[in-house]
């Protein structure tokens, strides 16, 4: 995969180039400081993927994409601003990485890249066994979508994941959207030092605990800040005591 780095910051381009050395399947074929320079390099080099900043002198990253003629390379945004995440996904960006970019988030973004021969066609069929994605840290931000509504939210701000029917309800701020994920899928990616499987139906954020009290049959009941009370199963109550005790 040939990549073009587009960012007005030389330091940001250098750091990203350094991170990409850990991924031999990606070759950096050029760098651009602004949209005009990038436009010429896209035409000349025909890269497979753009690592694209948003705020640059002159035109923005969105302006650049709108001006490209012919097949558009796949796009991974790299920016210091989180308020453009929804717009980024509206233009079919593969991912939206906040600076400073971490190696784990970069790996997750690169896992979404399609081979060049498939990039301009419909997405390939889903494999029978999806590759394992890297774990997420509490400070990472995730894209949450329910119907036509979208959010870009820090994992640290999510206080509860709860099974609801065949989906999982996500509790953050005043929102409770449903996402098509199982608790098992989420648990595999969440930091166990922050998120705890309280029972078969719920995963709680330990940082949102407001109170704990003994409950029936040697179990526990946990009160979350701005959230519901959660009954911890007997087995998990024992594990919780073990994990949280000195």
Automatic annotation (TrEMBL):
MF (Gene Ontology): DNA binding; phosphorelay response regulator activity
Domain of life, per lineage: Bacteria
Positions of modified residues (4-aspartylphosphate): 53
Instruction: List each copy of the HTH LytTR-type domain by range.
Output: 144-246
Q: Does the keyword Zinc apply?
A: no
| Coiled coil (UniProt feature) | none
Ranges for domain Response regulatory: 2-114
Q: Does the keyword Oxidoreductase apply?
A: no
Q: Which Gene3D superfamilies match?
A: 3.40.50.2300, LytTr DNA-binding domain
> What are the protein's UniProt keywords?
Phosphoprotein
Q: InterPro entries of this UniProt entry?
A: CheY-like_superfamily, LytR-like, LytTR_DNA-bd_dom, Sig_transdc_resp-reg_receiver
Which regions span the lipid bilayer?
A: none
Q: Which PANTHER family match?
A: STAGE 0 SPORULATION PROTEIN A HOMOLOG, TRANSCRIPTIONAL REGULATOR-RELATED
* Protein name in the entry: Response regulator transcription factor
Q: Which organism is it from?
A: Hymenobacter setariae
